[in-house]
Write a structure and sequence with these properties.
Blueprint: H1 4-14, E1 70-72, H2 74-83, H3 89-93, E2 98-104, E3 109-114, E4 122-126, E5 149-156, H4 160-163, E6 170-176, E7 184-192, E8 196-206, E9 211-222, E10 237-250, E11 256-271, E12 285-303, E13 307-324, E14 327-345, E15 349-364, E16 372-386, E17 391-402, E18 406-417, E19 422-433, H5 440-445, E20 459-472, E21 475-487, E22 490-494, E23 506-510, E24 514-528, E25 531-545, E26 552-554, E27 561-571, E28 575-584, E29 601-612, E30 615-622, E31 658-668
Parallel strand pairs: 4-6
Antiparallel strand pairs: 1-5, 2-3, 5-6, 7-8, 7-31, 8-9, 9-10, 10-11, 11-12, 12-13, 13-14, 14-15, 15-16, 16-17, 17-18, 18-19, 19-20, 20-21, 21-24, 22-23, 24-25, 25-26, 25-27, 27-28, 28-29, 29-30, 30-31
Length: 669
């Protein structure tokens, strides 16, 4: 028979991801286990919060789930929202094994790399829906405020068996707050010493006995900043506004419906400032106008006592107007998902089977040779089996029939062994990624010099990990060993013998050989009264086959050593004081005329907050050592590259010492 926590997890499975008034299940929004704190707090009604994860498809309690899911809890989200209210980049960047990589130094766009894998392999979800696209644009990460998040779930390693080809490197699932049975809300005002301002708000309320709603809004501004006075904008300027209403309906027979809509508009400006020029004597403006709209729904219906029907779908439309010097590029991205699944359980087994249809479409008004439309029907299944009180197994598999790259099969197996205070997990998965023109190098350069894609194979990866955690009282330690092998990595190659600036000078090809990434994560946590200590270390060995094919070379922009220390003293409703220190080791560089390897650097920060009644006053100081890449080297290349870009990669900080401060007003309960 199921042990009690597993029964509770199955009950969660049969409830929707958005249910908020369940008498039997109280969702955890405070603490977590394994890279998540394993502390249970009691409510005033003496109900104990239960940690439930959703990204693993079958809604298991985190300590009972064989699929390793790391949680950024609500407490940490609130802290990071004070540091960077405008986007989630800092929120995810300070998680072990996660690196936010700048892809366009001119516009500041970035993507998320999990355990050294390329950022294009990371699937970003909102409540399990791909509202930001199946292949999330790099700039999208910087357009999502953390205001309405309850927690964030991260699965590292191939998750294609769960979410298809866009999740080759893993999944980041943003879980929104769910309304309580009373009106509540908050408004946050923030200003920075670098000319940035943010106003964000979140309000939720019941509308009827069965219906409630929330709405999140944000207005953000950033001035262009040329910190080294070379005429090139180091911090891109932008004006952005966003709104996201959500609706939650719960039927009298256990059925539930969740609907969300979103709209975001942004103007982002980079490149040369004023009348300044690049080394060829010309001005080079780099701008991007974005209009994104999306809609998503999840419907959940119990069919008897142990079977559950789930329907979900989403649609996203994103219009871009780009400017790369004299080149104008206008394009449109569309993404669609419709999915249906059945789930249920027997004595020792929870299962799920479903069908899905995903669609990705790109339409360029300027360079129509890059237009594509991918249709991907798929069939997926998952089985979680509890062999004993200490051993659990999760098997999942997915078959996708890609309109361009044919049949793709993605399996994954996860094991859990949890004797007493130990948690041991192992996982192995395979997956694929459908190449597109939008690899990291193209973010900075655009499509004008890129040759049409020809004879490109899908990118494939195998990932494995072993995770060992030990929890004793207020102390938690964990060690993770991971390894990945990636075939057919797409990369940019210069076309020999082309000298005409208007001709196609670069092309995307599949790299020869495999990229190999392996490493280890170490985490230590300790809580003493109201003070929490967190220490982490990450070792990464990432290589690819050299151009000659006779040896291996390091992957660029992948530090071998990185570490962090966070000390946080917090008394809820009174005060918060935090200190953080992060170390980033040297990195291999490419196409950089100033150096072949970067310097190592430290990032130090201080955060303070005082709460009086419903008002919190906060101040945050980032980059106390004033680290800035342009102190040592210019960001500008000596001449324009073959792809059209004018900048080196950013391997360090580019903002220098920054202070932000503001107020947070809370309303209702």
């Amino acid at each position: 028979m199921f042990k009690k926590p597993f029964k509770m997890a199955v009950a969660v499975l049969l409830a929707p991801a958005f249910a908020y008034a369940n008498e039997n299940i109280v969702e955890n929004k405070k603490e977590h286990a394994h890279h998540e704190e394993q502390e249970h707090h009691e409510h005033s009604d003496n109900k104990v919060e239960v940690i439930q994860v959703r990204a693993s498809r079958l809604g298991r309690i985190v300590t009972e789930s064989a699929t390793r899911t790391e949680i950024i809890n609500g407490e940490e989200i609130q802290e990071k929202a004070l540091m960077r209210p405008g986007n989630i980049s800092m929120l995810v960047a300070e998680t072990g094994g996660v690196r936010v990589q700048t892809t366009s130094p001119a516009l500041g766009s970035a993507n998320i790399r999990l355990q050294g894998l390329y950022g294009r392999y990371t699937q970003l979800l909102s409540d399990g829906l791909p509202l930001y696209g199946g292949q999330t644009a790099s700039i999208g990460l910087l357009q999502i405020p953390p205001t309405d998040l309850a927690n964030v779930e991260i699965i590292k390693g191939s998750a294609s068996s769960l979410y298809g080809g866009s999740a080759l490197g893993g999944v980041i699932n943003l879980i929104s707050r769910t309304p309580s049975n009373e009106f509540e809300g908050e408004v946050l005002f923030n200003a920075t010493s670098r000319g940035g301002q943010d106003i964000t708000s979140y309000f939720s309320s019941p509308l009827t006995n069965n219906l409630s709603a929330s709405i999140t809004t944000g207005i953000h501004h950033q001035e262009e900043k040329d910190l080294d006075d070379d005429g090139w904008i180091d911090i891109a300027g932008y004006e952005r506004g966003s709104v996201r209403p959500r609706f939650y309906w719960q039927g009298d027979s256990g059925e539930n419906l969740y609907v969300t809509l979103g709209a975001m508009k942004e103007q982002r400006d980079g490149g040369t400032l004023g009348s300044a020029t690049v080394p060829d004597g010309n001005e080079f403006l780099q701008t991007q106008n974005t209009l994104r709209t999306d809609i998503g729904f999840i419907y959940d219906q119990p069919l008897g006592d142990v079977i559950n029907l789930n329907l979900r779908g989403s649609a996203m439309n994103q219009d871009h107007e780009h400017e790369f010097g004299l080149v104008q590029e206008d394009d449109n991205h569309e993404s669609y998902l419709i999915e249906s699944s059945l789930s249920g359980y027997t004595d020792k087994t929870a299962w799920l089977v479903g069908v899905a249809l995903q669609s990705e479409k790109f339409d360029s008004n300027t360079f129509s040779e890059f237009n594509y439309s991918y249709q991907v029907p798929g069939l997926f299944s998952q089985v979680d089996y509890e062999a004993s009180d200490e051993i659990s197994l999760s098997l999942s598999a997915r078959a996708d029939w890609h309109s361009e790259y044919g049949t793709q099969v993605s399996p994954r197996i996860s094991l859990l062994y949890s004797p007493e205070n130990w948690i041991v997990r192992g996982a192995y998965g395979q997956g694929f990624f459908a190449p597109s023109p939008f690899i990291e190098d193209i973010d900075e350069a655009g499509l004008s010099r890129l040759a049409p894609l020809e004879n490109i194979d899908e990118e494939r990866a195998s990932t494995a990990s072993i995770d060992i955690s030990y929890i004793m009282g207020s102390t938690e330690t964990s060690l993770t060993l991971f390894s990945s092998e990636i075939d057919n990595v797409t990369e940019l190659e210069t076309i020999d013998g082309v000298n005409d600036a208007l001709a196609k000078q670069v092309r995307i090809v599949n790299a020869a050989g495999e990229s190999e990434i392996s490493g280890a994560e170490l985490l230590l946590r300790y809580r003493w009264r109201d003070i929490k200590f967190t220490g982490s270390y990450l070792y990464t060995d990432a290589t690819k086959e050299s151009a000659t094919g006779f040896d291996r070379v390091p992957l660029t922009l992948t530090p071998q050593h990185s570490a962090g220390l966070v000390v946080m003293w917090e008394e809820h409703g009174s005060h918060l004081l935090g200190f953080e220190a992060y170390y980033t080791g040297t990195q291999q560089l490419e196409n950089n005329p100033y150096r072949e390897r970067s310097d190592a650097y430290w990032h130090l920060g201080l955060l303070g907050q005082i709460t009086i009644g419903k008002v919190s006053y906060f101040v945050n100081a980032e980059n106390l050592l004033n680290v800035r890449q342009t102190k040592d080297d210019s960001l500008l290349l000596l001449e324009q590259s073959a792809s059209g870009r004018w900048t080196t990669d950013i391997w360090s900080r580019n903002d220098g010492f920054t202070v932000n401060a503001g107020l947070r007003f809370q309303f209702g309960s």
